[in-house]
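Subgroup meeting minutes
Present: P.N., E.W., G.H.
Scribe: E.W.

1. P.N. recapped why we're keeping a running log of single-chain structure predictions: easier to compare across weeks, and new members can see raw inputs and outputs side by side.
2. G.H. added today's entry (216 aa).
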Amino acid sequence: MSFINYILENRSWVTKLSLQHIELSILTVLAAAFLAVPIGILATRSRKITFVSMNLANFGQSIPTFGVIGLMLPLFGIGFKPAIIALLLIAFLPILRNTCAGISAVDPAVIEAGRGMGMTEKQILVMIELPLAVPVIFAGIRTATVMVISTATLAALIGAGGLGELVFRGIEMYDSNILLAGGICIAAIAVAADQIMGIIEKMLSSGGRREAADVS
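Output recorded in log:
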């Protein structure tokens, strides 16, 4: 039986695991963006915050995900919650780094033009810096999404479900069809997510350029 036949014959189960994998990835990336973007904005205003946040993020990402998942078990038990916390460490750094880079790369002349128009610092952030930085920030979210989709395979080890169940079952049973079914589905989701977010990124880039033209 080929892995394609396996997917077709078990499509309801494979679909269920795929949806779990997608849900886990989306929740993780949203949580990471919710934390990383505000911290990234604050980091562009303070060198101390930049130093602390970047070093903590680098330290968190340097810890093997497998080890973090193991650490989550005694603290939070099994399921989605510990899996999201563990995967959050992977998604956080690229979003934080791109947020800092995007805001720092805004042309000072555009900011000065905003000040000349009487804008407050908050208005400059909301109406100039963020719109121009959004494409770069979203590129970080795009990178984080693909990384999380790939690494979320390990979430199956702590009962969070997802396509990792197929991968590990294939390994346990020495069945290449099951293993390939899980691996190819994960790859397909990652490629699809990357393509979709690439399209959105191009749209945001166009919008950012229009914002800059309006202010200048």
